[in-house]
Amino acid sequence: MIRELITQKKIENASRMPDFTKIKTGVNEKAGRRKKRTAGADPEVPDDVYRKCSCCGKPLLNRDVRENFYRCPKCGGYFRVHARRRVEMIADPGSFEEFDSRMETVNPLGFPGYEEKLRDQREKTGLDEAVICGSCTIGGEKAVLCVMDNRFIMSSMGYNVGEKLTRAIEHSTEEKLPLIIYCCSGGARMQEGIVSLMQMAKTSEALKLHREKGLLYISMLTNPTMGGVTASFAMLGDVILAEPEALIGFAGPRVIEQTIGEKLPEGFQRSEFLLQHGFVDMIVERPEQKAVIAKLIRAHDMKAGRRRFARITGAELSESLKASAAFADASADNASIPDENGAESRAKVKAASRTEKSAETGHKAGVSASSKLSAWDKVRLSRSGDRPRATDYIELLFSDFTELHGDRAYGDDSAVVGGVAFFHGLPVTVIAEQKGKNTKDNLKRNFGMPKPEGYRKALRLMKEAEVFGRPVICFVDTPGAYPGISSEERGQGEAIARCIYELSGLKVPVLSIVISEGGSGGALALGVANRVWMMENATYSILSPEGFASILYKDAKKAAEASELMKITAEDLLSLGVIDAVIPEPESYNCESMDEAGAEIDRRMEAFLKEAMAKSGEELRSERYQRFRDF
Ligand SMILES: [Zn+2]
Description:
alpha/beta, 2-enoyl-CoA Hydratase, Chain A, domain 1, eight-stranded mixed sheet, elongated, binds zinc ion
């Protein structure tokens, strides 16, 4: 009850005070920087008018603020943006067609004075309600765009807000369009009581149906996104983006402080805090938002992606895709998209030159000087700090990689890198274990030893890939999953088991490449694939030779001896059928000398994807089942 009263008061205050810094409940008083960063400038002021930045105190020309995406040109502080300005910033010029621009006033509780308040808000803001919805194109991609505006009763969610959003979601589902919602809200609209609460269920239900049709929803969290909006559509995005330093949470900071009787730390409930805790995929500055959203839409459009892949590689297209391709070409679909240019990756170009070269020299894949190396030599090589890391392969093989963060439950593990990218125009999901390049980087990456949240991020991205039909490409490089108290507390075994389990059933092509060290279950978590390849000097084993020796010989020093018996080299594993191919390495393998190996992977990956994309989900699954059933 107390909470409700506080929220009610908050909303009342909000409607009186256009500068929402004042209602950021407690955090501002303490966090001086925060108070400075968020200004309440009014973009409606004429262009040539000077006003003071409430962040740095410097005088600013209104035009300069507008041209700088409503950020202070002096200090970078974020100003509030009205919904219609947002639409201008995101939608292609002239493309926005608004839905439901006039809604009938509702007052479900017969709340005294509410209708007058709504009238007053409409006059002040020029908006019908706290959200505007419509269809548009974004970077040439068709979408439904909804934008909330917190000048209107703190953008709280009453019947009309929920109804407009739900109709927009339903429209995007019917028309098979991606959906983007710019969230911003104080939460529920108290004047509408329980009817306001029901909007959470209504919007969430509509989103569930949207996703079940394999359609994309991107949620963009802006300052502030709180209460019932956070606890419904704001947090349900396939991809969740956020503006820097936005306040995002369920309970308001003041409510939390009063409940626990403590001051909250600086940065609590800000975008960066949510990213760190695994709930936000990425924080995007305003000037980049449109491009990022357009790129994400393309990464989720498999039809267009498969047509591009077919154009670039000569892959076969199904009859239905051919038919839709004819239609799409007529409507100039994706004619000039950026990744088309990037589709000819560095490796692809090298691949062509390599084919000529190997024809001349008669070079055979998988056979080179290093096959003379002992297993122990290879163990040492595979652990070498000079070897290319997963991100080097990602940069070499793919274009437009967009990293997505978080397990949506606990944290974001830097030992696992994941996201979406394009391989010769085809959208793919990339998941990789990542070691550092130096000590500092290795501390950040935890030496490539994932924690449960790393595997749960991988799991989340695998499932997303399946919903949208994207192939999954995994890079394995880990000495093993992180053995720590916290890992066990959060269920390391369960997290790895889930990855193996879900990968086995995935109805999209899965390819896994062991690039350096493939240590135990922590490696297999990304290794249950249709094809598994290994770099020539990589190793893949049940545990480290040191661990093996200490268990079997009670002497870790006998690791070198153990390694010879363990069958851990690419050559051995190829003969055991554990892997399907060996990628040759040059004598000294590092980032500077990886082009040729990259070209070999590129060539094989293209062949694999051409073949695998022609198979049904069931075929891919049963092929994977049989591959591991045979052991
Ligand atoms: Zn400033």
